[in-house]
Every structure is written in C-alpha cells, then in structure tokens.
Target: Two-component system response regulator
Amino acid sequence: MSEKCILLIDDEETIQEVVQIGIEIETDWKVYIASSGSEGITTAQTEQPDAILLDVMMPDMDGISTLAKLKSNPETKSIPVILLTAKTQVADKNEFQNLGVIDVITKPFNSVTLASKIAKILHWEL
Model:
C-alpha cells in the first residue's frame, strides 16, 4: 500500500509541529504544511494529498474561504477535508458539514490519538 499524505493548513507553528510529530510518530504518512489558505491551495494542487486538515480561523483567507476555493477547483475538489477548529457549537459543526467537510476535529486535540482519529474518519488502516 502506498504511503498516505496529509496536508495541514494552519497558521499556528505550534499546531503545525504537534500535528506533524503526532502523525509521523504514529504512522508512515507524509505531512505537508501550509501556513495560509493560499499556500494550502497551491500545495493541494501540486502535491495532491490524500486528505487535508484545515484550520478554520486564519488571517488573510480563513478556512471557510479556503475550503470554498478547494471545492471549486477540479484538481482539489475530491480531496477529503477535515476541519480543525476551536468552534464547538452544534450550529457551527452543522454549518461546516453542510460546506462539504468530511468531519470536524475540535481544538485542543490529543496529538497522541490524532492519527487514529483521522484514520477512523477516513476509513484508513493504521
């Protein structure tokens, strides 16, 4: 089976490190990092990741705008997107799922169990 790759789009360096280390310790997945929505869109087009972890609250282009651009692009529209957010209201989660995300992971999250949570959401073997 080929190595999976995940693209993390998040502007916070701490989150980038926690996600990358947590996933790479637990799996053989490759983790690409993008620090902004526009960088994430470009990386998604060039790297064609198996899934995208997308922060909702970012400066310049927020996660919802980034998601809209990813979903409107034929090269990236079929890549599953999991939102990372501190917004935990039921209405927010329902709105996010109506936008076409596969699931929502709430911040803060446990970096030790993050990979298994992603694998479960995407039906991947670990």
About this structure: The chain has five helices and five strands. The CA atoms of residues 66 and 123 lie 24 Å apart. The chain has one domain: 5-120.
